Amino acid sequence: MKNNIFILKTIDTEIIDQLVSIYDSAFNKFNFRNWSFKDFNDLINTGAHIFYCIYDNIIVGFTIVRFDQDSSEIITIAIESSYQKKQIGKSLLNYIINRPEFEGHLILEVAVSNINAINFYKNFGFKKIGQRKKYYLVLKGNKVGKKIDAIVMQLQKSSVISVL
What we know:
seven-stranded mixed β-sheet; alpha+beta; 4 helices; 7 strands; Aminopeptidase
């Protein structure tokens, strides 16, 4: 699937609109804040790398990463809900950890309620290094106003497990 992964280098309204929709599809069940066109625009303008995956001739997932020499950060990985469990997330993460820009270690935050994502990252060798109390705010549903903890996870470049 590596050949189907592309980098968004400039503001492209059509692609960003699709990424907004994918983000909503992937994370709507958690009732957190949806991301907007402006959020993606701001990320691109501040140096974040957006990699997106095309499958069946449509964009089905993406990841956003900030690369730094010592510590890079995965801001998010989102897969269209109907395309989850089809190895797309694995392809995107393998693509990131094999980028020459990735040195040192890679960190991310994930909601404690997102068990599938936590297990996904553990399979790649990510380890829990901390927890952020009341990090995510629930904005919809019957738990409006509740705050959910985030687990902080890290992957050392030297301990990368490539999952096929």
